[in-house]
Amino acid sequence: MAKIEFSLQLASHVDCPASGELQPGSLREGLNHWFEQYPNLADYLLDDDGQLRGHLSVFIDGEMAVQAEALDAQVADEADVFVMQAISGG
What we know:
This protein has 3 helices and 7 strands, in the order E-H-E-E-H-H-E-E-E-E. It is of the alpha+beta class. It has one domain (2-85): Beta-grasp domain (Ubiquitin-like (UB roll)), CATH 3.10.20.30. Helix 2 crosses helix 3 (39-45).
């Protein structure tokens, strides 16, 4: 089973566990199982069109996923997924 981890700030903001298991398949499919249990997570991660919000970064096996393609990315059985707020500034 794949593993997912949310930054501690994100997890505490939406009141969900900071880590757990993620079903293999597309990231969207895996996250839908989390959204069923933690609706606030869906509201925080997805915009009104069901797309990943721009203030988030997703890493799959240490590689940052392209924002527009992240939800369609395939998550392998032993993958590690990390979701965090994007960092910006100057």
